[in-house]
Specification:
Elements: H1 3-7, H2 12-22, E1 27-30, H3 34-40, E2 52-56, E3 62-66, H4 70-75, E4 84-88, H5 94-101, E5 108-111, H6 117-126, E6 131-134, H7 136-143, H8 148-171, H9 178-191, E7 196-204, E8 224-233, E9 242-248, H10 253-271, H11 279-292, E10 304-306, E11 313-317, E12 330-333, E13 336-337, E14 344-345, E15 348-352, E16 357-359, E17 368-370
Parallel strand pairs: 1-5, 3-4, 5-6, 9-17
Antiparallel strand pairs: 1-2, 2-3, 7-8, 8-9, 10-11, 12-15, 13-14, 15-16
Helix pairs in contact: 2-7, 5-6, 8-9, 10-11
Bound molecules: zinc ion (3 copies).
One zinc ion binds near residues 241, 334 and 347.
C-alpha cells in the first residue's frame, strides 16, 4: 500500500459521518485546513473561492470546489475516496449550492475550526435556521488518536528535526546574530526533509528566558546559553517540534545546575506517560521535580501540546486536563526553567504506547557546549 493510502484511509470520511451523527449535527462543513486534510488528504489552498467538504450525518458526502481547482482536487488523495466533486462556476453562489444539496431544515451544522469568518457568515445567510458550532469537537476524537501510519509520519518528522539539531553546533558561533543562525537552521530544516519551516527560536542569553522569543539581531556572546526550539511540516503533512539547549563556550555557573534539574524533570515527565494517566499528571510530574529544586516559579507554561497535522493541537498537557491518555496520542513534553538572565527548555515529541511512551526525538538531552 502506498503511504498516502495508509495515512489518509478511505474509511475516514465514514468515521467522520458517524461522529457527526453522534454529536447531533446535521453536517460538518470543512474548508481548507488541517481538518480537511485529515479527512481527505487534500492539502487545498486557502482561497476566497469556496472549497468545502460537506459530510452530512445521513446521505453521501460531497466536495464543493471552484471549477479552476477541480484538477488539483481530483489529483489529490481526495480523488480516490469516491467522494462526489461538485464544481461551481464563477457566477454561481457556492453557499446556496451547498445549502440546496443538504437536507432542508438542519438544526445544527459544524464548521471547520479554521474556516474564515467571511465564509461562516455566508453559510449562516444560506442556512439561516442552522445553528453553527465548531466542528473541532467532532474531529478531535479522531485526530487525537493517531493511526500506525500517522505515528510513522511523526517518527519521520522527529528524525528529520533531530538531524537539524545535530547540525546546530555548525551554525552557532559567538559574534553571529540570532537571525544569522536562525537562517542557517531554517535552510537545514528544509534540507533535512521538511516541506516548510514552521518556527525557529534561537533564544540567546536573556532571550532564552522568553519561551516564545522572536529571532532578533542580537549578537550571541561567548559563554551564553542558547535555547533552540525548531519545527517544520513534512511533505506528509505531519509536524516536528523539538528543543535543545546549547552554550557557546563555558556556561554560567548556575546554568549547568538548573539544566540538570530540567533534564530530570523532562525525563520523569516522559516516564509518567502511559494509557490511563491524565495529562495533568504528566504536567505535574515535571512541575514537581522543578518545584522540589526551588525553581517552581520559573516554570510558568504548560508542559506540552498535542501534535500531528498541526504543531499545536489536542491533547494539551496542562493542569485541569483530566481526560486519560490513550495509546496513539502524540504530544510534546517540554518543561522549561527561566530564572533569567537566561533560560532552558527541553522538548521531545512522545507517543503514548500500550505500556508507556515512544520518543520521536532521540538527540541527547544534555547541554551541548559548542567550543
Ligand atoms: Zn510554544
Ligand atoms: Zn517547540
Ligand atoms: Zn512544542
Amino acid at each position: 500500500m502506498d503511504v498516502t493510502t495508509e495515512l489518509y484511509p478511505r474509511e475516514r470520511v465514514g468515521r467522520v459521518r458517524e461522529a457527526t451523527a453522534k454529536a447531533g449535527l446535521g453536517a460538518v462543513l470543512l474548508t481548507p485546513g488541517p481538518d480537511l486534510r485529515y479527512v481527505t488528504g487534500y492539502d487545498a489552498h486557502q482561497l476566497e473561492r469556496l472549497t468545502c467538504l460537506v459530510v452530512p450525518a445521513s446521505g453521501e458526502p460531497f466536495m464543493v470546489v471552484p471549477r479552476l481547482e477541480l484538477p488539483a482536487a481530483e489529483a489529490s488523495p481526495a480523488g480516490r475516496l469516491g467522494i462526489e466533486f461538485v464544481p461551481w462556476d464563477e457566477t454561481d453562489d457556492p453557499y446556496a449550492l451547498t445549502a440546496r444539496r443538504l437536507p432542508q431544515g438542519l438544526d445544527r451544522v459544524g464548521l471547520a475550526d479554521r474556516m474564515w469568518a467571511v465564509m461562516a457568515l455566508r453559510f449562516r445567510a444560506a442556512m439561516p435556521g442552522a445553528e453553527q458550532v465548531a466542528a473541532g469537537g467532532v474531529l478531535r476524537e479522531l485526530r487525537m488518536r493517531k493511526s500506525a501510519a500517522e505515528v510513522e509520519a511523526l517518527r519521520e518528522a522527529g528524525a528529520a528535526i533531530d538531524r537539524v539539531h545535530r547540525r546546530v553546533p555548525e551554525f552557532l558561533r559567538a559574534g553571529r546574530t540570532e537571525r544569522e543562525v536562525g537562517r542557517d537552521i531554517a535552510d537545514a530544516i528544509i534540507a533535512e526533509g521538511h516541506a516548510t519551516v514552521d518556527f525557529v527560536i534561537v533564544g540567546s542569553g536573556p532571550n532564552g528566558a522568553n519561551p516564545h522569543a522572536e529571532l532578533s539581531d542580537r549578537v550571541i556572546g561567548p559563554g551564553e546559553p542558547v535555547v533552540v526550539d525548531i519545527g517544520g511540516t513534512m511533505p506528509s503533512g505531519y509536524c516536528s517540534d523539538s528543543t535543545r539547549n546549547y552554550c557557546v563556550g563555558e556556561p554560567p555557573a548556575d546554568y549547568r545546575a538548573y539544566h540538570a534539574v530540567l533534564e530530570e524533570a523532562q525525563r520523569v515527565s516522559c516516564e509518567a506517560v502511559r494509557p490511563g494517566v491524565t495529562p495533568e499528571a504528566v504536567d505535574a510530574a515535571a512541575r514537581d521535580v522543578i518545584a522540589a529544586a526551588g525553581l517552581g516559579e520559573h516554570f510558568f507554561h504548560r508542559t506540552g501540546h498535542g501534535i500531528g497535522l498541526e504543531s499545536h493541537e489536542e491533547p494539551y498537557i496542562v493542569a485541569g486536563n483530566t481526560e486519560p491518555l490513550e495509546a496513539g496520542m502524540a504530544f510534546s513534553v517540554e518543561p522549561g526553567i527561566y530564572p533569567g538572565p537566561h533560560g532552558a527548555r527541553i522538548e521531545d515529541i512522545v507517543v503514548c504506547t500500550r505500556d508507556g511512551f515512544e520518543p520521536m526525538n532521540v538527540v541527547d538531552h544534555g547541554l551541548f557546549v559548542v567550543d
